[in-house]
Structure formats: structure tokens, C-alpha cells
Amino acid sequence: MKGCQMRGMVGLLVVVSLLAGCSLLRDSGAWQDPEARVLDSKLVGLTLEKAFLEVELEVKNPNLYAIRLGALDYQLDLLDAKVLSGQQQQGNRLAAGKTQRLVLPLELEFAELGQFVSNLSQMKSLDYAVAGGMSFDVPAAGPLRIPFQVRGEIPVPQLPRFSLIGIEQKRLSLSGADLLLSLEFDNPNMFDLLVNRLSYSLALNGQPVTRGALPRELSIGADGRSRIDVPVNIAFGRSTLALYESLQRGGNLNYQLDLDTQLGSSLPVFRSFPFATQQTGQVQLSR
């Protein structure tokens, strides 16, 4: 029992002496507390799977002698849930009167965030907070920690939706038909999407009808929709006689639409990626 009391007293004396050391140094004018402040917190990379953040800090030594940097500790919270924590050991000396910039890289995987955010797939963005501290080794006093905090927002990228919303029959004869396909593109994101080099193929009632590519880039506004009309010419032969009869009758047509494109965005940090999708269903033929 006496041993436990003795160890407790020793620990208390150490803490008191460290605090007294800092106080004496400040009172004597020989010591000024170092500074640590956040310069920026930004998104530096984004994919469908991950978000990459960087928190940039500036540390300053206002004293007339060098001090040693200790550990940079951090914790990242999303919606008040602790997601990441850790520390970076610095260990270098910061010269008298000098400042130094430090970069804290953070990486978030959206698949792992699902355990903290139940409706992540329906969200356009996430608010985050990064809190931490920069430790300094104070001469004759020991470690000193200067806290920092910063908040920001992370976009949650979602795949666009493509659909065939209508087919208009412009011309029909025994030799062929002219159709106008109406395609709709739905962008659920908080940033613009760019559809590059879109190629497509269409089958109606099980018969391949056409394939082609859009000659220009298509921009879909944030949380918006875009529609494009694609003219199609069909030449009938023996194998497509059943399709001619279906077009002559009108009504609903079974379709299969395959799209292949390269998706980009208005965000420079969002890397473009290949995207392919297939839509099947029924569409109304209008005249």
C-alpha cells in the first residue's frame, strides 16, 4: 500500500514540476508557446471507392532557440462517429523563429463508412471534422501539446442512371424505317458529370437494330437530367420482317440498350473511369 502511495506521489511531483517548468520559462521571458494552426483542409482525390483528404498545418517556433517536434495526433469524425485516428511522429528540430508546414494525409473507403452511416448510398455528401494536436518537446519542461480542429465536406460519388424513355417513328416502308431514340441521363451527384465517347447498341423485340457513338461530349449538371435524341435508320431484310410488322402495329416494344462510355466530372480530383451498363424493358412507340 505504501509502495502505491509512493509511486503516486512521484507521478504527481513530476507533473507539478513540468507545469512549474513551463510557467517559470514563460514568466522569465525565455519561453513562448509554439503555434500550430490549420492552413487548409481539402479533397485531393476521389474515386467511386475512396476519398483522399489532406490537412495542411503550419507550426511556428517563436523562441530564440530550436525546439523538437513530437507527434502529430489526429481523429476524424463523420456524423459524430469516430472513423479514423492515429499519429505521425515528426522528430525533427524546428529552428529558432522558423515555421514549417506539415501535411496530414487521410484516406477514406466508402465501403467501410457504411458501418457508420446507414444510408450512405443515398447521400450526396458527408460532413467531417478532424481534431488533433501537435506535440513539442519543451526544454526543461517536457512535452507540450497544441490542439487544432477543422471541418469540411466530402462528396459521395454515385453512378448516373441511363434510360430509353421513348422511340418515335419518323418513317416506315418495306425497305426501312427512320426512328428517333430519346435517351435520358440522370446525374444524382452534387457535381457535373461528363459523358465522353458514348457508344451504344439497341435491339428491339430481340432483333439487333443499330449501333453507333455520340460525336460530342455530353455534360449533365449537378443533381440534374439531360436528354438527347439519337436518329436511327433501319434497313429491312428477311431477318427483320418481324420487326417491320411490329413497327407497323405500333404499341410497346421490348428493348435492350447497351451503353459504354468514359465518365468524368467537373471536379479536377475525380478521375475519369470507364462505365458500361445495359437496360432492358418495354418502350412505347410513338408516331
From TrEMBL:
The Water stress and hypersensitive response domain covers 36-155, 162-282
Q: Which InterPro entries match?
A: Lea14-like, LEA_2, WHy-dom
| Any one of the GO BP annotations | response to desiccation
UniProt cross-references to Pfam families, sorted A to Z = LEA_2 (PF03168)
Positions in coiled-coil regions = none
Record-linked PROSITE patterns = PROKAR_LIPOPROTEIN
Lineage: superkingdom: Bacteria
Q: What family is reported?
A: Belongs to the LEA type 2 family.
What is the protein named? LEA14-like dessication related protein
